Amino acid sequence: MTFALVIGAGPAGLMAAEALMAPGRQVVVVDAMPTPARKFLMAGKSGLNLTRDEPLTDFGAQIASNGRDYLSTDAGTFGPQAVRDWAEGLGITLFAGSTGRVFPMGMKASPLLRAWLARLRAGGVELRSRWRWVGLEGGFVFDTPDGRHVLQPDVTVLALGGASWPRLGSDAAWVPILTGAGVSVAPFRQANMGFRVDWSPAMARLYGTPVKGVAIRAGDHVSRGEWVITPDGIEGGGVYAVAAPIRDGQAAHVDLAPDLDHAGLARRFGQPRGRLSLGNWLRRVLGDPARVGLLLEWGRPLPDTAHGWAARAKALPLHHAGPMGMARAISSAGGIRSDALTPDLELHALPGTFAAGEMLDWEAPTGGYLLTTCMATGLRAGQAAARRLQSAAAR
Question: Do 185 and 294 reside in the same domain of the chain?
Fold first, then answer.
């Protein structure tokens, strides 16, 4: 019986295990955490966004992968429709929201995960919890509740995640192990994160307030998603969608009225103020306390003409004090460099060992892009590992 090892029980690792399971084959998934897919479950607490309802070309354009096609698998592209077909095959009913995001009908991640784990167990996959990979000495070395164990699999898929949300298991502790083995790893950086803002005391009344109906522009990138004003800064999907260019130094501006052109907004600002306070007058023009607060916070010195107000509101500088820390980032950029991998995601330095998911050097915005790509790379690595086993058995 051949032995396939998967290290990491997140979406990429579980997808690799699914591709590997077959009669006469031992497939073992090990994970350092007490239960599998902790980050997957946390991400799905407010609604599991599996993928997008959009053309494959548009979807793929959102994935920054140094020219690699990380959606490609043996059966073709594992894109949005393939994810939907896969989930529905587990008995999960899906729906697409008005923004194109695809969710399970019940919104939660746990029913899908339960069905997925049941399929894997029925296929003979064994899951071992609290197994932490600590080295490569005569095999894959693990610290476990029963002491140190060394495994010598025929093939291995690494799916240990990146460096974000370390309390859920993605702590990048694997980096020195792989670099010591000659694998080139790009430094990790925050991705899909918020930004710190040193708010004035006047903004305290808006903490926790959602910002809707605005656009953030950073170079060629535009986001119309919702975000939130917090005591530490700004967070939420609308910020995450343009976080990468802002992190990399691109100046960002907020359009507080993206559905109005400059002339139309100037006409609104040209209405007589009368005896209204500045705040009430701006609220009448902009229609939202959060937008008013941001304009007063980031728009100084304040304009004194209707056209000046319109120009400021259409291109309000987004002042920030840098990205939130890695512990609060949704994902990370960086990881195993493309040139350290074969086209099948096998490590040049460790033949028979494949890698998938956020361990690889790519990034994508939230909204289904991250999860779909993690699953696609897991499937691809698992398929390649299975081919390796089949080829060895045929010799």
Answer: no
- Which CATH number fits the domain that encloses residue 390? 3.50.50.60
> Looking at 294, 317, 340, which one is the last position of a domain?
317
Q: For residues 203 and 343, state if they share a domain.
A: no
Domain boundary among 282, 317, 352: 317
Is the overall model pTM greater than 0.70, yes or no?
yes
Assign 3-class secondary structure to the chain: CEEEEEECCCHHHHHHHHHHCCCCEEEEEEECCCCCCHHHHHHCCCCCCCEECCCHHHHHCCCECCCCCCCEECCEECCHHHHHHHHHHCCCCEEECCCCEEEECCCCCHHHHHHHHHHHHHCCEEEEECCEEEEECCCEEEEECCEEEEECCCEEEECCCCCCCHHHCCCCCCHHHHHHCCCCEEEEEEECCCEECCCCHHHHHHCCCEECCCEEEECCEEECCCEEECCCEEECHHHHCCHHHHHCCCCEEEECCCCCCHHHHHHHHCCCCCCCCHHHHHHHHHCCHHHHHHHHHHCCCCCCCHHHHHHHHHCEECCCCCECCHHHCCEEEEEECHHHECCCCEECCCCCEEECHHHECCECCCCCHHHHHHHHHHHHHHHHHHHHHHHHHHC
Domain assignment of residue 202, given as a range: 195-317
Encode the chain (395 residues) as per-residue pLDDT tens digits: 899 999 999 999 999 999 999 999 999 999 999 999 998 988 777 789 999 999 999 999 999 988 899 999 988 999 999 999 999 999 999 999 888 999 999 889 999 999 999 999 999 999 999 999 999 999 999 999 999 999 999 999 999 999 998 888 889 999 999 999 999 999 999 999 999 999 999 999 999 999 999 999 999 999 999 999 999 999 999 999 999 999 999 999 999 999 999 999 999 999 998 899 999 999 999 999 999 999 999 999 999 999 999 999 999 999 999 999 999 899 999 999 999 999 999 999 999 999 999 999 999 988 899 999 999 999 999 999 999 999 877 76
- Assess whether 117 and 134 both reside in one domain: yes
Say whether both 46 and 142 belong to one domain: yes
- Assess if residue 124 is contained within a domain: yes
Same domain membership, residue 237 and residue 131: no
